[in-house]
Structure formats: structure tokens, C-alpha cells
């Protein structure tokens, strides 16, 4: 019973950091709010094109939107 979902994007955290909502992002990108919600919960992943559009709209580095594949060795 694997209940933990792999996290690939940090969209929910970045939206919170920027003080923006899923609905605001959906409006900015002209996509369905359900799509943005699924991106935020990592049910589905945005395309590369969408990631870059999201970064532009949020005035963020696209790398901020992704979970690193590297482990911290500190």
C-alpha cells in the first residue's frame, strides 16, 4: 500500500511563496483550474513548455519549480 506520491515539482510551494493562488495561475496561463490543482498535488506534471510559462508568469527561475534530483551531502 504505497501511499506516498513522488514529488517532482514545487509549484504549490512557489505559489505560496509568491502569494498567488491556483486560480490566479490558471487565469494567467489560460488553463483549467483543475489542471493547475493536479500540477500542485503532483497528480500530473506540466509540460516543459508549461514549466517555462509558469516560471515567466511567477517571475521565478524555472529551477525553483522542480524538486532536485540530488541529495544534500551536508
Concise overview:
The protein has 74 residues and is an all-alpha fold.
Explained architecture:
Helix content is 47%, strand content 0%. The chain has four helices and no strands. The mean pLDDT is 92. It has a single domain (11-63), classed as 434 Repressor (Amino-terminal Domain) (Orthogonal Bundle), CATH 1.10.260.40. The longest helix has 11 residues, at 48-58. The N and C termini lie far apart (32 Å). It has 74 residues and is mainly α.
Reported for the largest beta sheet, the result is:
none
Q: Looking at the structure, what is the overall shape?
A: globular
* Named CATH architecture: Orthogonal Bundle
Low-confidence stretches: none
CATH fold category name: 434 Repressor (Amino-terminal Domain)
Strand composition percent:
under 5%
The overall pLDDT average reads 92
Give the count of structural domains: 1
Protein structure class: mainly alpha
Within CATH, the superfamily carries the name lambda repressor-like DNA-binding domains
The count of β-strands is 0
The top-level CATH class is: Mainly Alpha
Following the backbone from N to C, one meets helices and strands in this order, namely: HHHH
Q: What is the subunit organization of this protein?
A: single chain
Q: Treating each run of at least 4 consecutive H or I residues as one helix, how many helices? A: 4
